Structure formats: C-alpha cells, structure tokens
Amino acid sequence: QDTGLQPNVITCSALISACEKSSRWALACLLLAELPKRALRPGVVAYNATMSACGRARHWRRALALFAAIREDGLLPDVISHNAAISACEKGEQWPRALCLLGDLRRSGLQPSGVTYGALVSACEKGGRWQEAYELFSEAGRSCLPPSTIVRSAMISACEKGGQWELALSVLAEAARGGLPLDLIAYNASISACEKGQQWQPALQLLADLRRRGLLPDVVTHNALISACGRALLWVRSCALLSELRLGRRDA
C-alpha cells in the first residue's frame, strides 16, 4: 500500500497460502475476511488455503464453516476443498463428518484422490472404526490409488485397535509382497495387534522381519513383544527381550 499498489485476489491468495504453510491460521482467516472489504471476491484457492490452515491447527469447526461459505459465496468446492475439510475432520477426530464429506464429494461429480482416501482412513482409525477404514483402504486400491506408507500404517493401527490381528498381518504381508516401503509404525501396530490377539509366534516373526528390513526396534516394539510373551507364560523370552531393551538404552 505504501507504494500505491493495491493487492488483488491473486496476491491475497498467495499470502493466505503462505500463512497456511507457516501454520498461521488466525492470520489466514483475517486475510480472507479482508477481501470483501476491499471489494475483492475470494476464490476457491483462498478458501482452500484458509481451510487447510485451520485444519492443521485442529480448528475443524472453523474449517467446515469455511467449506459451507464456499457455496454461500456462489462458488463450487473442488476436490482440494473436500480434502481440506476431510483432513480437518481427521485431525479433529470427527470420522462421521469426514464420511459425510466423501458423500458430498461424490454427489458433486468429483472423484476422490489418494489424499482423500488417506485422510478418511486416518479419520476412521482415530475413531476406532476398522471396518470403515478397511473398506476405504480397499476402495483406494481398486481405484489404482495405492496408499502411502503413512496411510498403510494407519490402516494397520485401525486393525490393532479393533483386535483384528489377522487383517493387520494381511495388510502388512500384501505390502511386503508388492515391495512397498514399510515403517516401524506399521510393524509396531502389527506386533501390538498380535499381542492383543495372544499370538506370540507371529509377533516374534515380525521382530525378525523388521530387522531384516534394516529397521531398529524401539521401546514400543519391545513392550508389545514382552507383553505377548508374558501372556504365553514365556518368561525366559520376556526376560531376554527386557535385557535387550535395557542394553539398547545403554548403547544409545
């Protein structure tokens, strides 16, 4: 303004996007609200960036209000709009609202993306809804949208929370057969699922598998294994795992 130049929708949208990337959700909301005061009409890009900023800060109600405001402003939300709203619900642990947004996306004639499925699986995992998570996980695969390592780990965590150790191992094995990357989170969730299902042998096999992949077991890994062996009254094995954990801590 000091130079006599007036910001337009493009520059304001760029500023809002910068706020979103720097986690300054309140400033993003202020900038969006400032546009009509300058006789500028916010575009979908500006709304999407503001929703993403709010979602990252776990302000899911504000994000959903912005999603509704897109249509109120005579605009049409796109896939990115839906993804931002679904991600906000995921972070706010609002899985029913996330699924409602998926329905809205489809009714709008839009196709879910890999980001859509990822946020939905994570939302269902946080809500303890392993059936819905697996349905979405499978649907993504049928749509030729292979899930990321993070989404696969979320799916396995959903199985662990739901006491579905066999399904957890199936998801893990399918990824291994396909040569897909697996992280320690996925292995830990699988081992925990086996522990809850009183399956100590598969749990120990997973320990060997993760080591072959060059991963290092952590406290979570050892705790689940010790519990699994303890449930099976394998005290010698439990003590050996505990000693290994203590030795690892000293080496660290």
How would you portray this structure in words?
This protein is mainly alpha-helical and 252 residues long. The chain has two domains: 20-111; 147-251. Helices cover 74% and strands 0% of the residues. The chain is built from 14 helices and no strands. The protein has helices spanning 9-21, 25-37, 44-56, 60-72, 79-91, 95-107, 114-126, 130-142, 149-161, 165-177, 184-196, 200-212, 219-231, 235-251. α3 (44-56) packs parallel to α5 (79-91). The longest helix has 17 residues, at 235-251. The model is unreliable at 1-5 (pLDDT under 50).
Question: Which secondary structure elements does this structure contain, and how are they paired or packed?
Answer:
Blueprint: H1 9-21, H2 25-37, H3 44-56, H4 60-72, H5 79-91, H6 95-107, H7 114-126, H8 130-142, H9 149-161, H10 165-177, H11 184-196, H12 200-212, H13 219-231, H14 235-251
Bin the strand percentage: under 5%
Distance between the termini: 55 Å
Major sheet characteristics: none
Helix content: over 70%
